[in-house]
Write a structure and sequence with these properties.
The complex is a heterodimer of chains A (228) and B (837).
Chain A (H helix, E strand, L loop, with lengths): L1 E12 L2 E13 L4 E5 L6 H8 L7 E6 L2 E2 L5 H11 E5 L10 H11 L5 H11 L15 H14 L4 E5 L7 H18 L2 E5 L3 H6 L2 E5 L5 E3 L8
Parallel strand pairs in A: 3-8, 3-9, 6-7, 7-8
Antiparallel strand pairs in A: 1-2, 1-4, 4-5, 9-10
Helix pairs in contact in A: 3-4, 3-5, 4-5, 5-6
Chain B lengths: L1 H9 L3 H39 L3 E5 L5 H9 L3 E14 L2 E10 L9 E4 L10 E4 L7 E4 L3 H5 L6 E4 L2 E11 L13 E5 L2 H5 L9 E7 L5 H12 L7 E4 L1 H54 L4 H37 L14 H22 L22 H20 L2 H33 L4 H12 L1 H36 L6 E6 L4 H10 L8 E11 L2 E2 L2 H6 L1 H4 L2 E5 L8 E5 L7 H4 L5 E7 H7 L6 E6 L2 E12 L11 E3 L10 E6 L7 H9 L4 E4 L1 H39 L1 H13 L4 H38 L8 H23 L1 H4 L2 H7 L1
The chains are: A alpha/beta (228), B alpha+beta (837).
The structure holds adenosine-5'-triphosphate and magnesium ion.
Amino acid sequence: MIKAYKISKKVPIADTELTILEALSLTVEAGESLAIVGPSGSGKSTLLGILAGLDLPSSGSVHIDGQNITAMTEDARAEMRARYVGFVFQSFHLLPGLTAQENVALPLELRSDKAAMDTAARYLQRVGLADRMTHYPRQLSGGEQQRVAVARAFACQPRILFADEPTGNLDIVTGATINDLLFQLNQEEGTTLVIVTHENSLAARCGRRLHLQCGTQFTPVEEMTVKC
Amino acid sequence: MLAIRMLLRSWRDEEVRLVIAALVLAVAVVTSVTLLADRVERALIAESSSFLAADLVLESHVPIDSELINEAQGMGLRTATTLSFVSMVYNGDRMHLASIKAVDDGYPLRGQVRHADRAFSDDPAHIKSTNAGPEPGVAWVESRLLPLLNVELGNTIEFGESRLNVNRILIEAPDTGTSFSFLGARILLHADDLPAAGVLVPGSRVKYRLLLAADGKQGAQTLAEYRASVQSRISLHQRWISPEDAQQSIADTMQKARRFLLLSGSIGVILASIALALASHSFALGEIRQVGLYKTWGLSAPKIRRIYCLYALAIGVVGSLLGILLGAFMHEILLFVVQDWLPSQLPEAGFKPWIIGIATGIICLAGFMLPSIWHLPALPAMTVLRKDIPIEPVSTVKKSAIGLLAIAGLLLWYSENALLMTAMLAGFLSTALAAVVVGYGLLLGVRWLSQHLTSVWRLALANLWRRRLQSLIQVLGFSGAIALLMIMWVLKTSLIDEWRWQLADDAPNHFLVNVAPNEVVGVDEAMAKRALDSSGWYSMVRGRILQFNEVDLTPEQRDGHESLRREINLSWSKELPKGNSLMSGDWWPALPEELRSQNADITPVSIEVELARELGLVLGDRITFSIGGLEFEAELTSTRQLDWKEMRPSFYFLFPEGRLEKFPRTFMTSVYIPSADKLLLNDLLRQYPTLQVIALDKVIARVRTIITQVTRGLEVMTLMILACGILVMFAAVRLSMSERLHESAVLRTLGSSRGLILGVQLIEFTSLGMGAGFLSALGAETALVVIQYYLFDLTPVWHLWLWVVGPLGAGLLVGILGVAYSRSAVKQSPLALLRRL
Ligand SMILES: Nc1ncnc2c1ncn2[C@@H]1O[C@H](COP(=O)(O)OP(=O)(O)OP(=O)(O)O)[C@@H](O)[C@H]1O
Ligand SMILES: [Mg+2]
């Protein structure tokens, strides 16, 4: 599903360059779940962004479903994201001015999906928020907000779901329900999961775990498939 | 569709509401004034037909061919004919040379005749307006004829061979000028009475008029066709008079008025634009995450741009529509406020005001909102994953340039004058710059203060300094609006009241003219009996102009100007009279010896500047006068401007002392006659039939209402502008809202009480308001000095109360508004606050 070949990311700071990632290669199979773990500042978010086509590596290439997204124009990459990718974020990123249902429906509406509101209602039901549809994010707890975000991500039926510390802002119990939800939907929809997390319990549930060392190292925790 | 749905949803966003509010206000200010100007202009143009009593007039010195009349009627035009001439009217041994107008049944085609059933009365209860003149056998006469002929209403007077019953007092006919002419008393009668009276003989000087009016849509065209078809048969003694001449000058005046209104309204537009830019800026900040989401959902940059452009367009359309609605409502209020001064029935406005309103909205949006959101589509998608992604909005310099361009474009459009636009822009910019400098100084003072204070005060004042850019913008926007309010207020209460006071109460409202030397004492006694004070007696001589530069005046020249046709008043004075100012040339003492000498053949003369221009006279021109058959020559040595506000006798022609004294002279004075004493005029005219009265009381009353109403109208406008200023404040507070929320949450988790936080906010906003009040007092005082000195020639006075009321009032207002607006920052629990961040 995803193939990254020798990707590096360097950013200019002051008059030198900071190397965040160097010559990383990795493969994620369709339907697989992968956890990316590592200390803060080790480049997890950067890697996730590059794999999802939100950002470009300084060198190397990323293929999604056999297509080289690093060689595409930005607009073509946007098209790829629309077809393959869904996201769940640590800080939920719900729009405060929209109700739960409107939040879920928005990406569908942007694709001119006529049934957007109905689909949104269905997915909110699946995450257990059928009775909170007209509530605004500020009227929801953190866990409930993240459930809305999960519903929003799955409503678009992505082939790959990227999650950047989806439970980072939640307590352990609430976090666990979100995790359950992610894996349950992953199973039902056959989605490929790439999750950045600090949490061992979440990492443990994934099919594979990759440990990203500060700087450039990629160290295996269990079944390492990629190294620098 | 999506854009509209987005708009409907984002209506819940404070920023979007602010953007729309700013847009609505800008559009409303502009729409209301243009609507008002447009409708008044249309009304005046419609009324100008009634000044002629027709849509088109053919004036002739020979009787008008009945063929011309038949032809007009054949084409569907309405017609009427009038004859004007002077003729003697008698009652026993009393007689008067009256100005007669004989009219037929059709008269007047446009406008109305106003007449009363009581002499010397201006009580509306006695006055009636009708669409017809007198029937045969009766005469409607001016009040002053009654004492002159010693008759009462209902008596008859002799007119040639016939007798006419005087049954109404003529107040005003649509096609006669003002009532203060030196001609005889006016009489309106029916043309059928002319043959029996036999007053018209071959050779009588009669002015014939054929009045024409056309109704319906094709009217103007029919008139034009008629005019073209008879043009070849019009003789040298006949000429067309159309309302266009009058309309042209109305259009010119209205153009100026509209420009003035729009340009003062543009202050509101500028303030609203600042609010718009600020609100758009906060809006764009809030949209960053949204754009990141769009990108992760696979929307390309062009698509995102399209979404935002459509969104902005939707905001523009909704804002402009709401704006013109509010504008229409505000213009009704303006109309209500100035109603006494306007014609009672105003025609509907054309489409132009609406277009100006909507275009203003779109231009404001393009100039102030688009630049703020322009960078959004180009934001990197990674903003959703990392907070420290640098964002590159359109640079402030570029934004300011675009904003200035938009304002400049609007000003140019409103004023249709590049110079005026540049001047206004320069004015705004330099005022803003000065305000920034002073405001920055104030902020420095505040910082210094904050270092010497404790607790709440320290916190609050330090906040002002920390957010200094924002504070400056708030102070600027707000003080601009308040300064304007102050200027209006002072202008109204001091200057205009001062001027009104000059006219009021004991300001002369009547001129008594043509008083013979032996009558002066008698008139003085009559006035003293009623305890009236005159402004003293001025002597004058009546004469005619015969030649310019030793060439006889042609009949065309005489027809061209009133003062070449009849006798004019000549007077003399050693000093330049009070209220007169020399425009060109020199006053007597500075003239060369050969002109000053009492024995010189040529005497110097000084003429009112406008009149000299109209007569085509320049310094050094020779004018030959005739006084009672004696001719003498004068040279134009100076021109003067007269000050009509003074309401004292002023003379168009002034000579040095010692030149005119040998001619028979008459006297004139001005006096204030209260309504209750108006019968004095009756007595005076009965006793001294040659005395003439010029009544200005109605004119003065009209001037007074105009001034009152104009100021009231301007007050309404200033309030609209103040609303724009308040909006700037809200938008600026909004910019700092998340920061304020954060601070308040942190302060409260650290154990500060709600009271403390409220106190900080109150002090912050109140100080801000006081600063703005101080700045506006400074600005208003400066502007007032300029206005007093240059516009009204008054010695500038300080308005101490501005410096007290300004800061206190503004402090109170801004303090209350600011705290009310940001109170949510303290009302919520710290946890809820932190969670929202
Ligand atoms: N555009 C950039 N400019 C400068 N530095 C960057 C940029 N992008 C990433 N970095 C730096 O690279 C390092 C990795 O960042 P990244 O956000 O990927 O870490 P992370 O593993 O997600 O950390 P965390 O667990 O705290 O989220 C950080 O030190 C960050 O400051
Ligand atoms: Mg991260």
